[in-house]
Design brief:
mainly alpha
Length: 442
């Protein structure tokens, strides 16, 4: 079974990459031109679109680390998709530059006059100040990029196979004569491939546990810095986990769509099964319930406390058309996907599962706008054309780079420890289908 892209598949991805790049570049150029006339609107729309794309990248990093901790056939199938998505984090660091340039337009705590008139802002200047804001952002991206780099580097070493590749990367010589002979021939020993795969798998597993802790802490601070501080009078202890669950939903929905998109062609067509799709449907349902719980938990705590500095977050979201967005989020992010994913025929069939994933992904974009835009007074839905064009610009550039990264290696890991489990699952599905056909004939 070949794990590489077929020539026609690579050509197809090349065409899509070019189109995404052109659309993204043109849309972003138009928005930049519009920034000269309405800079605040540009930076506001850009921040929302950026946070959505960042959520897909960071959410994929979390799902990848969860797989390295748990294993399973589901992760083997999408591991390359997740790794390609995590390799877009350096690009996302570059795309943060416009947000950094727009801090004086976006954040109230950067205005000296408003800070001087508000004692609470003066108290928060220890944390909310521009140099510290930039320093924390650099730290976040260093941590996230380092996690992504190590996981991808060790994955490439695992693909190379053999103790020789693993130990040479670590500075250790081969340990036995078989490794020495393999080194002389330029090939890793065949019987040591499983040992090499285990070495790399253990490294990625050991990194993933602390990595999830690092992500949780850094993402909480990043959510406070970049979104919650848009309204500095408001604070919520659940805001970081709320943003994190939104990122998981976006990342998993995107991964499912890419998987379905590639599953009709080799090599994924040879390993993907209805049971695998059902696993992803169940995982999407789990993340959906977790996100809904976080949204409800924040609302419940604020409603019970009924404190002015907390209620102010919901006031702008209950008028100017945002109340309809609230109901749309409830219906199309929770109710419709929830009941759809309860049905086995939806989760096992690519077409209906893709529709649910598209709906969840789009509504998470709406949710990010719901978090960001109403923090500014007198903003309404359908407020400005940049709100629609900026996601195309940022998303187009990000998607083009993702597709470039997706083409850099085989679509399936070469020596993943869950490979046999995925193939066995496909064999079981084939046997079950054969038995159903025989039963139908009888």
């Amino acid at each position: 079974m070949s794990s590489s892209l077929a020539p026609e598949q690579r050509e197809w991805l090349d065409g899509l990459q070019r189109r995404a790049l052109i659309v993204g570049a043109v849309a972003l150029i138009v928005c930049v031109l519009g920034a000269f006339f309405s800079p605040t609107q540009f930076f506001l729309a850009y921040l929302a679109a950026y946070m959505f794309c960042l959520g897909i990248g960071l959410g994929s990093l979390v799902i990848l680390m969860i797989y390295h901790l748990t294993g399973g056939a589901w992760g083997f199938i999408v591991r390359r998709i997740l790794e390609a998505t995590t390799r877009t984090i350096p690009l996302l660091a570059v795309l943060f530059v416009p947000v950094a340039c727009g801090v004086y337009y976006l954040y109230l705590w950067t205005d000296p006059d408003k800070v001087a008139a508000d004692p609470s802002l003066q108290y928060k200047q220890i944390y909310l100040n521009v140099p510290f804001f930039f320093g924390r952002a650099v730290l976040y991206f260093v941590l996230w990029s380092l996690l992504a780099y190590l996981l991808n580097r060790w994955s490439r070493i695992q693909d190379q196979s053999g103790v020789w590749a693993a130990r040479s990367a670590s500075g250790f010589p081969p340990s036995d004569s078989r490794s020495e002979s393999a080194t002389m021939s330029g090939m890793p020993p065949t019987d040591s491939r499983s040992e090499s795969a285990t070495i790399m798998a253990e490294r990625m597993q050991r990194l993933s546990g602390p990595g999830l802790v690092v992500y949780g802490i850094s993402l909480t601070f990043a959510a406070v810095d970049w979104v919650m501080s848009l309204q500095p009078a408001f604070h919520s202890t659940i805001f970081g986990p709320l943003v994190a669950t939104s990122e998981l939903l976006s990342a998993l929905s995107f991964t499912i769509l890419v998987l379905i998109w590639l599953s009709s062609r080799p090599p994924l067509a040879e390993v993907v099964s209805p049971d695998a799709f059902r696993d992803f449907g169940n995982l999407l349902l789990t993340f959906l319930i977790l996100w809904a719980y976080m949204v409800f938990f924040q609302f419940m705590l604020i409603w019970i406390a009924n404190l002015p500095y907390e209620v102010i977050w919901y006031l702008p979201r209950s008028r100017d058309g945002w109340e309809w967005v609230t109901w749309a989020l409830f219906v199309f992010t929770l109710v419709v996907p929830f009941f759809s994913l309860l049905m086995r025929e939806v989760k096992e069939n690519p077409r209906p599962l893709a529709k649910v994933a598209w709906l969840v992904l789009f509504m998470q974009l709406v949710f990010v706008y719901y978090l960001v835009v109403p923090n500014f007074p007198d903003t309404t839905i359908l407020d400005h054309w940049m709100d629609f064009l900026t996601p195309l610009g940022v998303g187009g550039l990000w998607l083009a780079y993702f597709l470039y990264q997706l083409k850099q290696g085989p679509l399936l890991p070469l020596h993943d420890l869950s490979r046999e489990a995925a193939l066995h699952l496909r064999e079981l599905d084939a046997e079950e289908s054969h038995e159903e056909e025989e039963a139908a004939r009888v």
